């Protein structure tokens, strides 16, 4: 079976499963008795096993299978969760992740068997059951058997003919069994069937629905496998089974009705009796019996898989050099695509209207042609393109969740490694950012978190002495603010000791002792962002090599963002990362300064004020205005931008009030032109040394206008 | 610098001859992406002094430098012969250069270029890598990467 086309889905889904596994194991560590979590882990391990099996990744399948076994024991309360188990689980998780990574880069699972890990799992399984090994083994085979039917169902979807009569071995619980019996007693005939959908089929759930709908004409469907909910959610591979209670004897008609549904490959249909399922309902007793049925099904399926992996084995070296085999993808909410589709259709309507207006004009409208409807259509078009842009941007937006989800685990590991108890509290994981930004924000954030864990949080003894709870708290808060997304990373640790930083800076000859005296706290903290400036007393493998905050800063700046630090000695530090929501197109206010046009991002503008020159006051020899309780510094853009001086100062100034975080500034402009959607273009490398101007844009008349970077002004 | 262009005697290179001030300069045609008429240049505050600004080249924003300012010849005098040569450089991408006039395209072999005539005291020397002889005319050959990179003559 050629599975390469499913590789993307496999990678995507297994990454999700791994994440869920990681989350759940973390929960389990704190609440070892949590049944829901145990069930969830079991389920995830099972799904991973199934996926790995389908894809022919035997080693991964083996590992997940053993994990699943172990958890089936945990589920049955035969094994208690302890820290040893958690550690093993995390090891397994890492191993699975490694498999998936290898698959990602080579489309093969690699050759790592993880035997040690598997042995650990099994040792744990046996060890916990104490002397009663035989019982444990029995249980194990039971759970393995219980899984077989579903595996069988998986392989039935492939070209494996032996799997076709899966309905004969499907699992039926007692409730359903009694229903089956009732149906027979009331004179109905039971038909079991396994329906195979074509492997190209995209809407499997829809096909299943149509099949069931067709069958309902004949009678009542009593049992499903997988469950009807799972079928509805498309949680099945390429086949599903069901039992129909019907008064009809028209087997061919039934078969035809099901086959008539498109994209159905084959239907296996036969009469069944309730006693066929009695065995399954009383599973352990029938274990051996069932194994015989399942075994031939599994074996042929496994054979080609084994061959495939053998084939792949000789050339792994060549393969690893390859680039990742999968493209970067974005999973898009169907609603977003619908919105996009609607707007495109509106665009077409608008285009057609314009065409009809222009043709009616040429047909003899002449000079009297309808200027108003023309104008209306232009406005309509404008609205559509704006919406269209927004939708496309939204399609590119993904929640930062995928990136930040790995952090709790990282903090947990760090906490153990450093011997400092600490907890990570995250909020706003659902905040969305452009996919390219999300991809690149992981490393800087990780670095900041490590920094907090290593340097920020003190040892438990120090914390106790300082009257703080022994467990340190690290937080990561994400939220949207105007056209920016803010991510704050911080801790309740010791804070930055500016005196020490100052000493270090003097030691390294960055500033002279005299200069150092006059530095503000902010300027001192800036030193931390200088290349190879490390404050760590000793180098650990977590941080302290001095390749750090400068890289964080440059990475974030490369994304068009910036990073700020606030720190209070003894109370902790907070790093605030500000990132632009969108990269290419923004809404901007166009302003005029002398005869030059500038764009100011609308997102950072708070309001616009008309003030009299007399209202300007002076604080520390700087111009400020006092509006609604805020004292706002005035920035004369014309001076800042070296514009030609004005002949005479006007009495009234137009001031654009912009904000960044909690700070404000009033920008004095000559004229307001209006709001406009602008496409951001780079200035080119040769004059890029200009922080004031973040880019340029081309206006409707072909003229170039510069975009002011408000963040550097405040 | 003379060795930077490595070629045999048979190899000939085409140069665009431009007039800047009263002198003629040659630009290796392989660096030239385009030649456009003078258009409105948008000033960029705080840019290097010899960059008057940026232009819109068919929807792309391209920085433009002034050869006049770069070589200390004073402000550009815009006439209807003024042109912007769009240079395509590996590192900097597209960069425009304002010149007074585009005269012709000539072909010079290495034998027609005098690499030794550079006077190190000459303020242009850092971005001139030879003097080409085209009949009676002498043409200074630009070292393109240097003229874009180097700091302007004060």
Structural class of chain B: mainly beta
- Give unreliable regions of chain B as ranges: none
Reported for the largest beta sheet of chain A, the result is: 6 strands, mixed
Determine the number of helices of chain B (DSSP H or I, runs of at least 4 residues).
2
Instruction: Catalogue the unreliable spans of chain A.
Output: 129-162, 282-325
Give the overall pLDDT of chain A as a whole number: 76
Q: End-to-end distance of chain B, in Å?
A: 23 Å
| Corresponding CATH superfamily of the largest domain in chain A | Histidine kinase-like ATPase, C-terminal domain
Rg of chain B, Cα atoms, Å: 15 Å
CATH class of the largest domain in chain A: Alpha Beta
Instruction: Summarize the biggest pleated sheet of chain B.
Output: 6 strands, mixed
> Outline of chain B, from the CA principal axes?
globular
Spatial strand sequence of the major β-sheet of chain B: 8-1-2-11-10-9
CATH architecture label name of chain B: Beta Barrel
> Which secondary-structure class do the elements of chain A indicate?
alpha+beta
Tally of distinct domains of chain A: 5
